[in-house]
Amino acid sequence: MTELRPETRTVHLPQPPLNGSRPIAVPLYQTSGFVFDDPAVFADGMNRPDGAFVYGRLSNPTVRALEEAVAGLEGGAGAVATGSGMGAINAVFLGLLQPGDHLIAQKALYGGTAAVINDLVARFGMEVTYVPEDDPEALRAAVRPSTKLVYLETIANPVTQVADLPGMCAAAREAGLVSVVDNTFASPVLCRPIEHGADVVVHSTTKYLSGHADVLGGIAVFADDGLYRKVWKFSTHLGATADPFAAWLTLRGIQTLPLRMERHCANARELAVRLDAHPAVAAVHWPGLPTHPSYALAAKLLPDFGGVFSFDLVGGRAAGERFMSSVRLALLAPSLGGVETLIMQPSTTSHKSLTAEELVRHGIEEGTVRVAVGIEHVEDLWADFAQALA
Ligand SMILES: *Cc1c(COP(=O)(O)O)cnc(C)c1O
Fold first, then answer.
1. What is the DSSP string of 194-219?
2. What is the pLDDT of residues 9-18, one digit of tens each?
3. Which InterPro entries match (predicted)?
4. What predicted TM-score, i.e. pTM, was given to this entire model?
5. What's the distance, CA 212 to chain centroid?
6. Rounded to whole angstroms, how far apart are CA atoms 168 and 227?
7. Catalytic residue at 148?
8. Is the pLDDT of residue 369 over 90?
């Protein structure tokens, strides 16, 4: 070939080979697609998750590194990373359910998940029965011929009920149902639902896994290879794909996940205990407190109790609002799992659309304040909370 002209050279950039070394960190493959020498390898990669990388909506090496990391942490056969937690939840629902199917879900659900289920019911003729998260008998009683799936959350928002994963997943298995567990609040450091019988684990990796409030992402992990391939195939059409840069940031977060979880849990314990003893506080909801209804179950299931708790102030809604506007260090913000401590009032924000009856179902009071504890020094956090309570 003749000497290439600048217009061509600038398009076809060199890619030097690594010649005997490799990067310490997982490289960011910021490319939408891949180049082939062999057309047969190209064709094969289109059809399965473990063929050659072809196109970013199907798979990408950085995204695959994240999928393998989380599948490994959760003890799954495979994982599908998505652009957000809701992307993973929708990929699982839409990939596994048909119009007319019945599903069983626990009563207290993440707001976005509750909205998706309402939508499946309204638009696709699906049916749902809500049961307590710790009542396998109620689950058994709810099973119908059309039931396909059971949906649970390891630790629910915002009053932190803990699901009886062994009991509920066993009941689901007996009835031939797929059990799906949202493990976002626990992270695989505190709980690996597949070890307790779950078929699918979903995460909003936006939270603890990435850990720095700088990225959105989700992932679905599958105990079974067949289920994994089925949802992978569907997800390639859904288009809720993870972006490589988001996956790369999440991988960096995961490297410090156990260290961060240790501090989140320790800080939550200290604040929960001190708030519980404070005269302005009516109740603290953290599963590590013996007064929490889930305490016995949580103590059996989890090595520690997570970094999210909520509390009710004696003065109800007005006192909650005063607390929210009096903190100086804690930030008024949604989400959780990052290094900064975030607070919010569920009844006026995340759960605003709920009726009074639904609020009761979730165990939320009008004045409930939810705290997603960060990794700051606990005495600085307590000083902030104490002055806000005063
Ligand atoms: C945040 C969250 C989700 C949704 O995840 P996104 O990343 O915001 O789409 C689902 N489940 C739980 C428990 C969450 O906290």
1. GGGT-SEEEEETTTTTT-SSS---EE
2. 999 999 999 9
3. Cys/Met-Metab_PyrdxlP-dep_enz, PyrdxlP-dep_Trfase, PyrdxlP-dep_Trfase_major, PyrdxlP-dep_Trfase_small
4. 0.96
5. 14
6. 20
7. no
8. yes
Ligand 1 centroid from CA 204, angstroms: 4
- Kindly report the CA angle at 96 between 90 and 99, in degrees rounded to 5? 90
289 and 152 inside one domain:
no
Q: Which two three-digit tokens encode residue 295?
A: 């305490």
Catalytic residue list contains 130: no
Tokens of 48: 């399965």
pLDDT of residue 354: 78
Q: What pLDDT shows up at residue 1?
A: 64
CA 80 to chain centre: 13
Q: Are 201 and 276 within one domain?
A: no
DSSP-derived 3-state class of residue 347: helix
**Active-site option among 29, 64, 101, 110:** 110
Q: Which two tokens stand for residue 329?
A: 């260090």
- How many domains does the chain fold into? 2
Among 212, 232, 254, where does a domain finish?
A: 254
Same domain, 189 and 307: no
Told to judge if 44 belongs to the known catalytic residues of this protein, a careful annotator would answer no
Residue 2 lies inside a defined structural domain of this protein: no
Residue 338's region, left for phi above 0, alpha for psi from -120 to 50, else beta, is: beta
Residue 279, domain extent: 257-389
Best CA proximity match to 28, nearest among 190, 318, 245, 261: 245
